[in-house]
Amino acid sequence: MLKRALSSFLAVALCLAPFPQASAATAKAGATCTKLKATSVVKGKKYTCIKSGKKLVWDKGVLVKAVTAKPASTPAPSDSIPACPKMDSADQSGISQSRADSLIGMSETAAEECATSLNWGYRVGQRDSEMFATTRDYRFDRVTVVVLLSVITRVDVG
Fold this sequence. Notes:
The protein has 158 residues and is of the alpha+beta class. The protein folds into two domains: 23-66, no CATH class; 89-157, Trypsin Inhibitor V, subunit A (Trypsin Inhibitor V, Chain A, 2-Layer Sandwich), CATH 3.30.10.10. Helix content is 18%, strand content 26%. The protein has helices at 2-16, 97-100, 108-117; strands spanning 39-42, 45-52, 55-58, 62-63, 121-127, 130-131, 142-148, 151-157. Strands 1, 2, 3 and 4 form a four-stranded antiparallel beta sheet that branches. Strands 6-5-7-8 form a four-stranded mixed beta sheet. The longest helix is centred in the N-terminal third of the chain and has 15 residues, at 2-16. Residues 19-24 have low confidence and may be disordered.
């Protein structure tokens, strides 16, 4: 009777235990990956998923500089904080890359508010080292941003 109860408990515990996802596996040179051109930063190295023969594997990795956060300070008059551009009729037919780049340097919330005020679609493609799933459809009225330490570092139209 005790063995039956113990085995039932073990079976239930195994069913409820979280299973690690394959996409959450740590990148390691030569290990298999799931998405071509996906990137992962592990211990100061940036690995990219490449195709080797018929398999997808992580490359050897490239050293990346560690980003250090600067202590917060009150902006001096000489500091330039990017301003949201004014509404332009050209935005109705599509956002130009130069106008989209005006979001670079803004805080994440300020960039989202700016994009919303200009009637641009807005989505985050990457925040720090976490990449988000995005569709591959190209939309002329949407920007996809990369956020590093709560600041927009890259903007792509589409």
